[in-house]
Design brief:
The complex is a heterodimer of chains A (71) and B (277). Chain A is mostly helical and 71 residues long. Helix content of chain A is 54%, strand content 0%. Chain A has one domain. In chain A, α3 runs antiparallel to α4. Chain A is globular and about 30 Å long. With 277 residues, chain B is of the alpha/beta class. Chain B has a single domain, classed as Protocatechuate 4,5-dioxygenase, Chain B. Chain B has 10 helices and 10 strands. In chain B, the strands form 2 sheets. In chain B, strands 6-3-7-2-8-1-10-9 form an 8-stranded mixed sheet, with helices on both faces. A two-stranded antiparallel sheet of chain B has the order 4-5. In chain B, β9 and β10 form a beta hairpin. The chains are: A mainly alpha (71), B alpha/beta (277). Chains A and B meet through α1, α4 and α5 of A and α3 of B.
């Protein structure tokens, strides 16, 4: 079954559609979002591998956290 | 009577135009030459309209509303938008749409049991901008984009995408007007984007696919599952659904691979293919 997190993708979509790039997200940016503790931690750390395994869309991970990729 | 006068398959990736200099010159020039030849052949076919089989990248369709298939009914399409322009190094521009033609396709589909979604407002990413930069630099021919969900699983099956393209082909040939229609599909070939394997390309899969396209040996492609594509061609490889849809519109037509380069710097197996009867 497909693993996807609507909460993560909602946050990332809003940033990607503004063509913004981030190294990590802040508490302020995550306020009011219905994220699990693990999802919040991954977003605040800019942990692209954790985000992938938590069900974030990889295109959105790439768009938002472009600076975290070595290629 | 309307007819399909040209068919082409290409890759799309922002870096193809955004960072041309980071690619090996010989690879870049091979691919650019492939695009140039495709442009020449499409122009020689004198299409009145281009049906673009493409996919969104969570730019137009958020997770709150994710259609499997969606027909564009806009008067024009940003290719690229102002926001995407900087990354792709292509000046913002709009390509003319053909909303009446798209509406006719939509209504025909609904009547026949093909329940397309539709949209009057699409903000493209690289799926239109990069290939049209090469194929339609003057934006002289209107387009009708047909979007397939290739980026936000679960996705429509490869076989269903072929059926969808087959329906579009039948629709074209059913038109009483003397229209000359080109079909262009963009996406793929193998690439891993945003996953822990980002940057991987699998030329073995790409050659397998291209060889089958060249022979019009479609059945092994239609049998591919989502998981097999993810394993062998990456999440970006799921975009071959667009190719399959285009091939469905022109059953029996064979591919002429003009260029294939696994460009590591662009993290994409890049191809241009002319498809002919």
């Amino acid at each position: 079954m497909t693993k996807t997190s609507y909460a993560l993708n909602k946050v990332l979509t809003a940033i990607a559609r503004q063509h913004l790039r981030k190294d990590a997200l802040t508490d302020e940016e995550l306020a009011g979002q219905r994220l699990s503790e693990a999802e919040q931690a991954a977003l605040k750390a800019g942990d692209i591998t954790a985000l992938y395994h938590l069900g974030a869309n990889p295109y959105l991970i790439r768009r938002v956290f472009r600076s975290r990729f070595t290629v | 009577m309307a007819e399909i006068v040209a068919a082409a398959l290409t890759s799309h990736a922002p870096l193809i135009t955004g960072k041309p200099d980071i690619a090996k010159p010989e690879q870049r020039e091979q691919l650019y030459a492939g695009f140039a030849e495709l442009r020449r052949r499409v122009a020689a076919a004198r299409p009145d309209l281009i049906v673009m089989f493409v996919n969104d990248h969570i730019q137009s369709f958020p997770y709150s509303n994710m259609p499997a298939f969606c027909i564009g009914l806009a008067d024009s399409y940003p290719a690229p938008s102002a926001g995407a322009s900087k990354l792709m190094q292509i000046a913002p521009r709009h390509v003319r749409g053909a909303p009446e033609w798209g509406m006719a396709l939509l209504e025909s589909g609904l009547a026949a049991g093909f329940d397309f979604a539709y949209s009057y407002e699409l903000e493209s990413w690289d799926e239109l901008a990069v290939p049209l930069h090469f194929l339609l630099p003057e934006a002289t021919v209107p387009i009708v984009p047909v979007y397939t969900n290739c980026a936000a699983p679960p996705l429509p099956s490869v076989r269903r995408c072929h059926q969808m393209g087959g329906f579009v082909g039948e629709f074209v040939r059913s038109r009483a007007r003397a229209e000359r229609v080109a079909v262009v599909a963009t996406g793929g070939v193998s690439h891993w984007v945003g996953t822990p394997e980002t940057g991987r390309i699998n030329p073995e899969f790409d050659h397998w696919l291209l060889d089958h396209v060249a022979r019009a040996d479609i059945e092994p492609i239609l049998a591919l599952t989502h998981d097999e594509i993810e394993r062998d061609a990456g999440n970006g490889g799921q975009e071959i659904r667009n190719w399959v849809a285009a091939l469905g519109a022109v059953p029996g037509w064979k591919g002429d691979v003009l260029a294939y380069e696994p460009v590591a710097e662009w993290i994409t197996g890049c191809a241009t293919v002319w498809v002919h009867s």
